[in-house]
Amino acid sequence: MLILDGGLGQELIKRSGRATGLWSTQALLDAPELVRAVHDDFLAVGADVVTTDTYSILPDRLEPYGLLDRMDELVELACTIAVASRDARGSGIVAGSLGPQGFSYQPDKAPPAAQAAAAYAPLAKRQAQFVDVHILETMASVDQARGGLMGCAETGLPVWLSLTVDDSDGTKLRSGEPLETVFPLIEEFKPAVVNLNCSLPEVVSQGLPVLAQAGVPFGAYANGFTGIHADFNKVGATVDIMKARQDLGPEAYLNFAKDWAAMGATHIGGCCEVGPDHIRALVDHFKGA
């Protein structure tokens, strides 16, 4: 069992008291020491993986804020912070996050795969100087996942593909495509791990038995939102319009994780609203206190 970290972006918002359209990237601009502190805290409770603060460092996220010319600088800063945190702990995997283009949970706004790959490729190459694996996060359609996998193909690093499923039916991607329609893509690009992420834990539990049929290592890291707000649908939308669940404390989350492990999941962590206390519960159960 490999224990991933939790939701970096929401932890940063809690600690900074500020939510902006730049989401987790705002902390790199204003208070990079907070990014380091969150990484340190996840590793301190026993996480095996530290995920870089690069989810929203994408051309279409930065350009509206006049930050496109700082993209390489921000990628390097985020990666060096994560590496320094891992090195201080003495062990662990640094995963270079690449989020969805267009916007999270909005696959209809994503560019075609070839165009997306052209944007991902230089980011992946920059990350590859620092990270151990790439992690494509919150991919909501087959074509969106294809663009990410194409963009990472040239670095030679392992790729973890994380798919987000419909909050009313975990057997479907948020695009409405059945989860098994991604299997040919998995066979073609051979990602090292395929996860379900940033969906309700209940629907992750629905989707994992389907994903298990793909025949590759798989995992899960759900979010702790009550659901995705309808207005969280475009660049500039702020995540503070989302509501956190009050019934998903560390023990409740662990109960879902136990089920995922019983299904065969070997990579388990948390996404938005899943913090260090949740990850500590996973580590204590799966690895011993």
Quickly describe the structure.
The protein is α/β, with parallel strands linked by helices. Helix content is 42%, strand content 14%.
- Helices and strands, in order, run as EHHHEHHEHEHEEEHEHEHEH
Whole-number radius of gyration?
17 Å
> Helix fraction?
40-55%
- Average pLDDT works out at 95
CATH-assigned fold name: TIM Barrel
Topology:
Blueprint: E1 2-3, H1 8-16, H2 25-30, H3 32-44, E2 49-51, H4 59-62, H5 71-89, E3 93-98, H6 113-127, E4 133-139, H7 142-152, E5 159-163, E6 165-166, E7 169-173, H8 183-189, E8 193-197, H9 201-211, E9 218-221, H10 250-263, E10 267-268, H11 276-287
Parallel strand pairs: 1-10, 2-3, 3-4, 4-5, 5-8, 8-9, 9-10
Antiparallel strand pairs: 6-7
Helix pairs in contact: 1-3, 3-5, 6-7, 9-10, 10-11
Could you characterize what this model shows?
The protein has one domain: TIM Barrel. Helices cover 42% and strands 14% of the residues. It has helices at residues 8-16, 25-30, 32-44, 59-62, 71-89, 113-127, 142-152, 183-189, 201-211, 250-263, 276-287; strands at 2-3, 49-51, 93-98, 133-139, 159-163, 165-166, 169-173, 193-197, 218-221, 267-268. The strands form two sheets. It has an eight-stranded parallel sheet with strand order 1-10-9-8-5-4-3-2. A two-stranded antiparallel ribbon has the order 6-7. The chain starts with a strand and ends with a helix.
